[in-house]
Amino acid sequence: MKDEYSSISGESTGLFKDRGSKFIAIAVPVNSTEAIKEILDNIKKNYHDARHHCYAYKLGTGDDDWRVNDDGEPSGTAGNPIMGQIRSYKLTNIMIVVVRYFGGTLLGTGGLINAYRNAARNALENAEIINKTVKCTYNLNFPYESMNEIMKVVKEENLEQSDQVFEIDCSMKVHFRVSLENKIIKKFTLIKKLEFRKVFIN
């Protein structure tokens, strides 16, 4: 599983104007469809007087969790050009919404594609692009007597730790990049009296 990806560090905006129409792009980092819905609802409230709220988003490191929406513009003239910029910059966990204020002049298919593409591009030009790693988190539960074996694996694999409880019954969370998962799980299974389970991947 690919465990590195590029996204943006925070919200950024872009602007493109053509023959009176104004296209405002808002690029936002996202990590779930629930977050996408909430952000889209907020943008529609903030730009309630705009004629269109077109968008594209992509989630995850694969290529099967994405969507485009033309929001009333001619099919293929808005969402696809926005997605084209996301793909051009090789980004994921990102949503770009472009709101349009109509200026009274029809732009035609080519004009719309150009406008939505350039608005999205401008938002990404203004964004800080960062590289991130997909990590697993596991809960570990073990008796104190197994501490040395656990900490040996933690040190060998340079695992991040959190929520440590070291008493008669011990527990902790460990975090590591997903590409190392099989290797680390094999080491965990060799430790007697260790119980472990995956909590999440982020």
Topology, element by element:
Blueprint: E1 4-8, E2 12-18, E3 21-29, H1 33-46, E4 52-58, E5 66-69, H2 79-88, E6 94-101, H3 108-125, E7 129-133, E8 135-143, H4 147-156, E9 160-165, E10 169-177, H5 181-189, E11 195-201
Antiparallel strand pairs: 1-7, 2-3, 3-6, 4-5, 4-6, 8-10, 8-11, 9-10
Helix pairs in contact: 2-3
Molecular structure report:
Strand 9 and strand 10 form a beta hairpin. The model has no long low-confidence stretch (mean pLDDT 94). The protein folds into two domains: 4-132, Ribosomal Protein S5, domain 2, CATH 3.30.230; 134-201, Alpha-Beta Plaits. It starts with a strand and ends with a strand. The protein is elongated. The chain is built from five helices and eleven strands, in the order βββαββαβαββαββαβ. With 202 residues, the chain is an alpha+beta fold. 30% of the residues lie in helices and 38% in strands. It has helices at residues 33-46, 79-88, 108-125, 147-156, 181-189, and strands spanning 4-8, 12-18, 21-29, 52-58, 66-69, 94-101, 129-133, 135-143, 160-165, 169-177, 195-201.
